[in-house]
Specification:
By secondary structure, the chain is of the alpha+beta class. It is built from three helices and ten strands, in the order βαββαβββαββββ. The protein has one domain: Cyclic Phosphodiesterase, Chain: A (Alpha-Beta Complex). The chain has helices at about 15-25, 50-60, 95-110; strands at about 1-10, 30, 40-50, 70, 75-80, 85, 120-125, 140-145, 145-155, 160-170. Bound molecules: adenosine-5'-triphosphate (ATP) and magnesium ion (MG).
Length: about 170
């Protein structure tokens, strides 16, 4: 049995409201992502079988990330992926380093090979084809409070994410 996996930072519940407001302001831009699914992907792993999953968890048992914040200051359309996302120009160094290490680890162990570097973003809409109708009214902050290894499963109601493991960030 294999799982579709990715490492991510969830957007804390207490910080989801501004993103929901943005989705309302941008209504019609595409299929709105559910607030409970708001996240920042650090590394996409693709399909991982049971033994590779065990090895992955063993390699990353001591994963650590200090508490840090991301500032998003732009709305960006990626036309090929049909994604409309919140993006930021600045990324805390520890987060950038962790994402790079996770992506390299995946490639070295025969999992997904990322074609681009880490671009922190929160997807707000899928199936988006038009440039955002408005600029981002004000910057949006997202606190990194934990890293999650997520299982992604398609369901008739849309994609469902389940955490396989969580690593709380330290002070
Ligand atoms: P759906 O594919 O059903 O629209 P989704 O894209 O959220 O939903 P997944 O495709 O399982 O679900 O992706 C999980 C996370 O990994 C998302 O953040 C997605 O953007 C990212 N991801 C998926 N495929 C890739 C890829 N080939 N390269 C980089 N990141 C990816
Ligand atoms: Mg996808």
């Amino acid at each position: 049995m294999a799982n579709r996996l990715f490492f991510a930072i969830p957007v804390p519940r207490s910080q989801q409201l501004p993103l929901l407001k943005l989705q309302t302001q941008l209504e019609g831009a595409g299929r709105a992502v559910l607030a409970s699914n708001f996240h920042i992907t650090l590394a996409f792993l693709g399909s991982v079988n049971a033994s590779a999953q065990q090895q992955l968890l063993h390699r990353w048992q001591d994963l650590t990330l200090p508490r840090c914040q991301l500032q998003f200051d732009q709305l960006t359309l990626w036309p090929q992926a049909q994604v409309l996302a919140l993006t930021g120009r600045h990324c805390p160094t520890p987060l950038y380093q962790l994402a790079g290490a996770l992506q390299r680890d995946a490639a070295q162990h025969g999992l997904h090979q990322s074609s681009r570097g880490f671009r922190p973003h929160v997807t707000l809409f899928r199936g988006a084809t038009a440039e955002p109708a408005l600029p981002l009214p004000q910057p949006i902050q997202v606190d990194c409070r934990e890293v999650q290894l997520m299982i992604s499963e398609p369901t008739p109601a849309g994609v469902s994410y389940q955490p396989l493991k969580r690593w709380p960030c330290h002070d």
